[in-house]
Specification:
Organism: Denticeps clupeoides
Radius of gyration: 34 Å
Strand order of the largest sheet: 7-6-5-4-8
Helix content: 55-70%
Function: Induces bone resorption, acting probably through a signaling cascade which results in the secretion of factor(s) enhancing osteoclast formation and activity.
Keywords: ANK repeat, Coiled coil, Cytoplasm, Cytoskeleton, Phosphoprotein, SH3 domain
Subcellular location: Cytoplasm, Cytoskeleton
InterPro entries: AH/BAR_dom_sf, F_BAR_dom, FCH_dom, HR1_TOCA, Nostrin_SH3, SH3-like_dom_sf, SH3_domain
Structural class: alpha+beta
Number of helices: 17
Length: 605
């Protein structure tokens, strides 16, 4: 038998073996192939062969993808949990508003027989309030209103007309506006989520395909190398042509796999950003809902005050309820309860694995080193470009913080998102580079270099393929928007209570205290002189939320739970205060301001 015939026979056996494995994975029965069929496969071109084998591999990969489609990395996303929790909160508020609108509509129609109808609606209002937040003063105020509704059975017919115009219509408009804003949110989240899952499954599919082609190519290469001295020139040329086609096909699939792996980053970030955007929209809707309820509550009290001496007792009770209601406090509580920040949250990412990393492969050490080196060079070029982009974004944010007059909130937020995306991309590229560098070190007999994510990489076997994932820190940060003033509403004749200012600044998790250096330049005159600091009066107190340490002498070191006296608040996010006799600057995002009660406020209360 000639060398070429020997190679053709061996080639058919390899194809049989690979087809047998793939069909076993997909649950199909395997039947042997005739010699004629094997010869026909040998004469196929690369495109026909790829199309034929894809029909087999698709069935096997479909079963693998179905097992990985709902892995923890896909479904257990912290942003998604927060979004679903806020949706549940919003559904309760929407249900309450619908019930409240129905209540006022029926009340306006039943004023002529008010005594009987009011008792029924008061009970209904109590039941509708059970699903609301008991800690909200606005919702609790409506619970107290239901108690007064039992006592005003003889109310005037004009009151019904007023309720229809100022309560039913306004609530209907608010509900329509809220539904219009929330309707496309679930579709957007589902669309991006499906794309993320599809990308995850596509990575696994192309990876298996690449490893199979690489294994077959290396086996073919070894066969050619071992038999090149005993074959004719014609047979040698034909085998070299097949080897070239195999290498080209392998290179195309390798590039496709790398592109899909890089695309996974963009899809993941887009999913998180979509969830964050939908989260903020629903939060704004809930803020507006509380404002609307508070406005209607104030108007309700105003009409009650005009009914005369017969309703004086009811009017006083309603006024007392409204005095205890604090719209800004409720919105602040809403933001505080729903704006959860998970600093230690970690996300799992699938990183690139290559055939050359396997020490048991048929590739020689030199070829393994050359192949891994080529991939390292590609990674290094991407790392250099990404690091350059990262530095550029940091400069943009630094310039924006140093020039508040030229600061654009929208562009700054976009820059922060791009910086977060670039940081994540750089981390993933560095993890892959570190993994491949370890392979080179092993081949050259050198010690492996440790990386900051070395302990976060996990590997597992899936039949004849090895997968690697890395756990990267992905803190969940939902921004707290500044509360809008509603002083005009508080000047209503029915509201006489004190105004409480809720927290309006964003409580960020501890990060890199970079603004400390800028603060030293832009705010150097604030509290720099120790003699002037002695004359400063305290403007408030705050409690530390996180530990803060610094090497600078003019910065205050604090631990979680410490109470700090505030002397001055800077516009750049740094305050000046004292703790245990030590004075210095500290970041305002690391503390929570404590309420200050004066003698006047205590007497008014």
């Amino acid at each position: 038998m000639s060398v070429f015939g020997l190679w053709s026979s061996w080639r058919g056996e390899v194809s049989d073996f690979r087809t047998h494995d793939l069909r076993e994975e997909s649950g199909q029965s395997f039947k042997g192939e005739s010699a004629a069929e094997r010869v026909q496969k040998d004469d196929e071109g690369p495109s026909e062969r790829l199309r034929r084998e894809s029909l087999i591999s698709d069935a096997s990969l479909r079963s693998v993808a179905s097992r990985l489609a709902f892995s923890p990395a896909c479904v257990l996303l912290q942003y998604n949990l927060l979004y679903q929790e806020l949706k549940r909160f919003s559904r309760n508020g929407e249900y309450f508003c619908k019930e409240l609108m129905t209540i006022f509509q029926q009340r306006s129609e039943l004023e002529i027989s008010y005594a009987k109808g009011m008792q029924k609606l008061a009970g209904r209002l109590i039941r509708a309030s059970k699903g609301t937040d008991r800690s909200s003063s606005t919702y609790n105020a409506w619970c107290q209103v239901s108690n007064e509704m039992y006592a005003i059975a003889d109310v005037h017919r004009a009151l019904g007309n007023a309720f229809h115009q100022e309560a039913v219509v306004e609530l209907r408009q608010a509900l329509d506006e809220h539904n219009k804003r929330k309707r496309p949110l679930d579709t957007a989240v589902e669309k991006v989520g499906k794309r993320f899952i599809a990308n995850w499954n596509e990575q696994l599919k192309v990876k298996k395909k690449l490893i199979g082609l690489t294994r077959e190519h290396e086996a073919l290469f070894s066969f050619v190398e071992n038999n090149k001295n005993i074959c004719t020139e014609k047979e040698k040329q034909k085998m070299l042509n097949r080897l070239t086609k195999s290498a080209e096909l392998q290179a195309r699939v390798d590039e496709e796999y790398f592109s899909i792996n890089v695309e996974a980053l963009q899809v993941r970030v887009k999913w998180e950003n979509t969830l964050k955007s939908c989260y903020q929209i629903i939060q704004e809707v809930e803020k507006h809902r509380i404002e609307t309820l508070f406005s209607i509550l104030s108007k309700y009290g105003l009409h009650m005050s005009n009914f005369g001496q017969t309703l004086t007792h009811c009017q006083n009770n309603i006024n007392q309820v409204i005095r205890t209601a604090d719209m800004e406090g409720d919105i602040a509580a809403l933001v505080e309860e729903t704006s959860v920040t998970a600093v230690d949250n970690k996300a799992e990412f699938l990183i690139a694995d290559y055939f050359e990393e396997d020490r048991k492969t048929v590739m020689g050490p030199e070829r393994r080193r050359d192949a891994v080196t080529a991939k390292l060079q590609r990674l290094e070029s991407h790392i250099a470009k990404t690091r350059k982009d990262h530095e550029g974004l940091e400069k943009i944010l630094k310039t924006s913080s140093e020039n508040p007059s030229a600061k654009d909130d929208l562009s700054t937020e976009e820059s922060e998102q791009l910086l977060d995306e670039t940081t994540l991309k750089l981390d993933l590229l560095e993890v892959t580079h570190c993994k491949l560098s370890a392979v080179i070190a092993e081949l050259e007999g050198k010690p492996k270099h440790l990386h900051r994510f070395s302990d976060s990489v996990t590997k597992w076997k899936d039949k004849d393929c090895e997968h690697s994932t890395v756990q990267l820190p992905r803190p969940v940060k939902t921004k707290k928007r500044p509360l809008r003033s509603r002083q005009a509403t508080r000047r209503s004749v029915m509201y006489k209570g004190p105004v409480k200012n809720g927290p309006s600044e964003e409580a960020q998790p501890p990060g890199d205290p970079g603004p400390a250096r800028r603060r030293a330049d832009t705010n150097s005159s604030v509290g720099s002189d120790e003699g002037e600091a002695e004359d400063m009066a305290s403007v408030g107190r705050c409690r530390a939320l996180y530990d803060f340490t610094s090497e600078r002498d003019d910065e205050l070191r604090m631990k979680e739970g410490d109470t700090i006296d505030i002397f001055q608040k800077g516009d750049d996010g740094w305050w000046f205060g004292a703790l245990n006799g030590q004075r210095g600057h500290f970041p305002s995002t690391y503390v929570e301001e404590l309420p200050v009660f004066t003698v006047t406020e205590s007497s008014n209360a």
